[in-house]
Amino acid sequence: MDRNAALLRRFLAGDADGAAADLNRYLADSERTLQDMVDDAAPPDPPDTVGA
To answer: In this structure, what is the dihedral angle of CA atoms 10, 16, 17, 20, given to the nearest 10 degrees?
Structure first.
């Protein structure tokens, strides 16, 4: 919530470019967090049994 509030304050203060940069960082961080969660939840790769 702090990050959202800071972004809104920046935008309301007239710093649209700064708010946009903050939002881009926020979204990139969120994407990384979600991808990490998906990667951690994925089942392990099955063993390679070809040629065994």
So the answer is: 80
DSSP 13: T
What's the predicted TM-score (pTM) here? 0.67
Tokens, residue 48 = 């390679």
- For 22, 25, 26, 44, 45, the CA distances from 12, given in Å and listed in that order, are 14, 18, 18, 47, 48
pLDDT of residue 52: 58
Count other C-beta atoms under 10 Å from residue 7's C-beta.
18
Distances (CA, A) of 8 to 13, 20, 29: 8, 10, 18
